[in-house]
Design goal:
The chain has one helix at about 20-30; strands at about 5-10, 35-40. By secondary structure, the protein is an alpha+beta fold. The longest helix has 10 residues, at about 20-30.
Length: about 50
């Protein structure tokens, strides 16, 4: 059975991966995938100040 998709990849934006988005897309095309998902672990810091 041939894989058609990979919906869980990471890019350098996740800080622990080694591929750029373009590299992930090129690799997916080279493997013959029809769909690739980028699921980076980006969590910008949010600071909330509540005045009581």
């Amino acid at each position: 059975m041939k894989d058609l998709l990979d919906v869980h990849t990471h890019t350098t934006a996740s800080l622990h991966a080694y591929s750029t988005m373009s590299e992930n897309i090129c690799a997916a095309k080279a493997k013959g995938l029809e769909l690739v998902g980028i699921s980076d672990r980006i969590c910008p810091a949010v600071h909330i100040v509540i005045t009581l």
